[in-house]
Structures are given as structure tokens and as C-alpha cells.
């Protein structure tokens, strides 16, 4: 990659290109959650989208056999089941390995408890095809969960679960600081395959990914995400792209080294490696000296830590306010009506019944309910 963040061997692109939907592979990392994988595969099978799928499976052998049955039940998908991974493997290692096997021009990673929506992914590939300088893009995520008091119904929640804005600054330093000040993972974005392979190669070379499932500070996620915006502009599209399960719990264990941006933790051996390697890439792309690059990386991590603390405080305040409102104000007929009006007007996402968004919600709902209970 060169100083302006362009991949050395990116294919030439013109505004007139319209990517073939089958030119984007979906990599689904999964571990010990056969129902989640089954519902996701059933959703894609029902869409009829001709998207190549790679299931990167590190489940125990008995679960892998169940997953194989779910894959075999798909009638419209071309699914490759990569079941060679051990249960203890760090999830990012299997993602890197699976992406290395991709033959398509674009690739996207979809968590097994999420749904990435084909029209949104196709919009992202079209965006990348017509915007040189951008090598990754994604749209808006909504959340979903079972409706209160109605176990058979699914609510889609208005408001992006991964709020993001375009990262289009000309300078790599500015892109990195903007990204970490309002951090959104880039792992679920559509990427140009040669670009993300190069990012993965740099990540492996850095040595920040632990071999096992335990990661002291999500270095495996943060490092390639930060490299992505160092080397490229990042596109954020104002349309439905994915749906996240708000009730799902991560199957991976992460440590608690949450103060790595603080001066007291700068001697952490893994953080020193993480920091030094990122600074080397930033310095090469931005044309700045090592000390300045290290300063920018530290500043980016401070912004990230501050943003996480603000988010945690807001979540806590909202939860406490909701509980108080329910106990004091909403335990009567008028209050319940007001609450229902608020939910329908500002909280629930209910697109017009004849829209493509509504169609995708219906497919997601059907796949979830078929694999519930």
C-alpha cells in the first residue's frame, strides 16, 4: 500500500460498474451456537441471493455435525464448511484463514448471531466500485429482540446499533482519530478482498493476536480496524445493512485490560507491541516521524477509552430512568398507552409493508421463529 492509503494492487474501477451480487463472499465464524447458524443460513437460503458462503466453524465435533446438517438443508446457497478449527482457537485467526480462501472480489464477515442484509451488502459493493480510495463500507444496523409479553413476536428497534459516519479525511492521522473517537467495528463491513487480506497479513505479522480464545483487550478486533482507516477511507451508507440480536451473549472470553490507554498501563508488553506496530504503519502512510505517530496512536486510544466510558454511563442512566418510569408513572392505563405510543412512534422500526426492508424483516423473523425454543 502506498502513502495515500491505496492498496498496491487494487483492481481498476469506474463509476459505471455494477457488481454482480455473487462477487461478494460471506464468511460466518461460528462457535457452539447451532441454532444461530441454522437461522442465518435459512435466511440467506430464503432470500435467493447468490452469495458464496464460508462457514468458519470451531465448534466441538458434535456441534459441527449439527451445523453440517443445517448446511445440507440449504437449497439455494453454495456453502463451504471449513470445520478444521479447534474450539480453543481465537475467532480472528479463523476469520483470517477463511478470508484467505475467498475467490471473489469482495468479502464480508457476518457474526453467527447477526443478519447482514443482501441489498445493503450489494449497495456497499456498488459504493466501493465507484469510489476509489475507499476499500471498506457498511450501512446502518438495527437491533432486534423478542417483544415484551409476546414470546412469538420479534421487535426491530429503530436507531443504528453501530452508529457510524463516513471516515473520509485526507490524512491518515485524522481518519484514525475520528474513528476511535466514535468507534464502530469495521469487521462487519464489506471489504475489497485484496485489501483486507493485506490488512490481515499486517495483523498476523504484528503478533498482537493470541492463539487461544482469550484476548486481553480486543487487540484482534481493534488492530485491523485501526489499520483499515489508516490505509483507507471508510464508507458509511444511510440504508439498512444489518440486524443485531440484542439478547445474544458473546461466546468468546475477553480479558479486562481496559486501561491500556492510561499511562499506568503503557508498560504492558502486549500494548507496547500493539502501539509500536500501529505507529510504524501510521508513520509510513502519513509521512510522520515515529514519536509523532506514537503520540497519535496514544491519543486515538484515549479517545476510544473516553467514548467507551461515556457510552457506559449513558446506558446506565437510560436503564435506571426506564426502571423508575415503569415503577412510578407507567403502572396505569394512561401510562401504558403513552408508553405504547412512544414505542411505536420513536422506538420500533416498522417500514412500509410493501418495502424491501419490510420483506427482509419478515424473512429474518421467520428464520428466528423457526429456530426458537
What does this structure look like?
With 373 residues, the protein is of the alpha/beta class. It has a domain at 21-256 and 352-370: Spore Coat Polysaccharide Biosynthesis Protein SpsA, Chain A (Alpha-Beta Complex). It has helices spanning 34-47, 61-72, 91-100, 118-130, 172-181, 193-206, 219-231, 269-286, 290-328, 333-347, 356-370; strands spanning 24-30, 53-57, 79-82, 106-109, 114-116, 134-147, 150-157, 190-192, 233-245. Strands 1, 2, 3, 4, 5, 6, 7, 8 and 9 form a nine-stranded mixed β-sheet that branches. Helix 2 links the parallel strand 2 and strand 3. Helix 5 packs across helix 7 and helix 7 runs parallel beside helix 8. The N and C termini lie far apart (49 Å). Residues 2-16 and 253-265 have low confidence and may be disordered.
Key phrases:
11 helices, alpha/beta, Spore Coat Polysaccharide Biosynthesis Protein SpsA, Chain A, 373 residues, 9-stranded mixed β-sheet, single chain, disordered N terminus
